[in-house]
Amino acid sequence: MTVKIFDTPEVQNFLNTIAGFDQEGGNDRAKRILHRILSDLFRTIDDYDITPEEYWSAVSVLNALGQGTQFGLLSPGLGFDHFLDMRMDAADAEAKRTGGTPRTIEGPLYVAGAPEVHGTGRMDDGSDTDGEVMWLNGQVRDTQGNPVAGAKVEVWHANSKGGYSFFDPTQSEYNLRRTIITDSDGRYAVRSIIPSGYGCPPDSPTQEVLNLLGRHGERPAHIHYFISAPGYQHLTTQINLAGDPYTFDDFAYATREELVIPANRIEDADEIARRELDGPFS
Ligand code: MBD
Ligand code: FE
C-alpha cells in the first residue's frame, strides 16, 4: 500500500474538522497545537505507509505507557526534558541571565512534602545495609557569589540499588528525600548513602521503546536538587558522582560537565569517628 493522500483537500478538511476549526468553543491554542500534531502524525503515516497493524501496536505501547510513571520515564529518554531545558537556557541567555549552577532535568521521580531539616540532618532511614555513608554538603550562593541564608534545598536520590522511595515499595516514605533550609552562611550538610545509577525496568514499556531504537535505559549515579529562595529564580538541577560508566552516556541526556562532582573518600579513622559522633556537620 503506497497511496499518498495527505495533501488532498479531503484530508486537509478532515484535519480542520477534527481540530475543531469549524466550530466555536474549546481552546484556540489547544486547537492549533493539536492540529499541528495530528497533521504531522497523519503525514508520517502517509509517508511511511504505516499499516493498521503497526498503528494498533503503537496504541498498545501508548496504553502501557499510560500506566504508572511510564510516560514520565520515556519522556527524558526521548529527549523532551532536555529539549525544554535547552529552551530555558536559550531564554536565559537572551535575557542576559548568566552565571550560577547550570540547570538540568527534574525527571519523573520527585515527590513533594519531604521532611524539612535546618542546615543539617540525615536523609537515609538506616535500612540500606549495602549503602555506603555519604556526607553531602554545599553552599547556596547568588550569581554574585553571596551566600543565601534560609534558601530551600530539596534533595532526592536513589538508594544503593538505584531505587527511589514511593516508586520502590521496599523503601520507607521519604527515604532519601529531604527539604533542607540553609543556615546563616547559606550552607547545608546532610548525611546520606551513596546512590547507585538508575536503570529502566527491563520489561517496562519504556525499555521496550528504547530497545526499538537500539538504546539502553541507564542513568549514572546522580542526586537531584530544587533550589529556591524568595526573589530568586528557581533552580532544578542534579549532580553526578564522577567515575560512573554512564556519566557521559545518560539515557536521559541530563549530564552537564559542570555538574560532575568528584567525591572525596574519607579514609582517616579519626575524621570518620568525629563525623559519626557529631553528624555530618562540622
Ligand atoms: C531517574 O532517576 C531520573 O532522574 C530520570 C530523569 C529518569 C529516570 C530515573
Ligand atoms: Fe533520578
Automatic annotation (TrEMBL):
<dbReference type="InterPro" id="IPR000627">
    <property type="entry name" value="Intradiol_dOase_C"/>
</dbReference>
<dbReference type="Pfam" id="PF00775">
    <property type="entry name" value="Dioxygenase_C"/>
</dbReference>
<comment type="pathway">
    <text>Aromatic compound metabolism; beta-ketoadipate pathway; 5-oxo-4,5-dihydro-2-furylacetate from catechol: step 1/3.</text>
</comment>
<keyword id="KW-0479">Metal-binding</keyword>
<keyword id="KW-0223">Dioxygenase</keyword>
<feature type="domain" description="Intradiol ring-cleavage dioxygenases">
    <location>
        <begin position="136"/>
        <end position="164"/>
    </location>
</feature>
<dbReference type="GO" id="GO:0018576">
    <property type="term" value="F:catechol 1,2-dioxygenase activity"/>
</dbReference>
<dbReference type="InterPro" id="IPR007535">
    <property type="entry name" value="Catechol_dOase_N"/>
</dbReference>
<protein>
    <recommendedName>
        <fullName>catechol 1,2-dioxygenase</fullName>
        <ecNumber>1.13.11.1</ecNumber>
    </recommendedName>
</protein>
<keyword id="KW-0058">Aromatic hydrocarbons catabolism</keyword>
<keyword id="KW-0560">Oxidoreductase</keyword>
<dbReference type="InterPro" id="IPR015889">
    <property type="entry name" value="Intradiol_dOase_core"/>
</dbReference>
<comment type="similarity">
    <text>Belongs to the intradiol ring-cleavage dioxygenase family.</text>
</comment>
<keyword id="KW-0408">Iron</keyword>
<dbReference type="InterPro" id="IPR050770">
    <property type="entry name" value="Intradiol_RC_Dioxygenase"/>
</dbReference>
<dbReference type="InterPro" id="IPR012801">
    <property type="entry name" value="Cchol_dOase_prob"/>
</dbReference>
<dbReference type="Pfam" id="PF04444">
    <property type="entry name" value="Dioxygenase_N"/>
</dbReference>
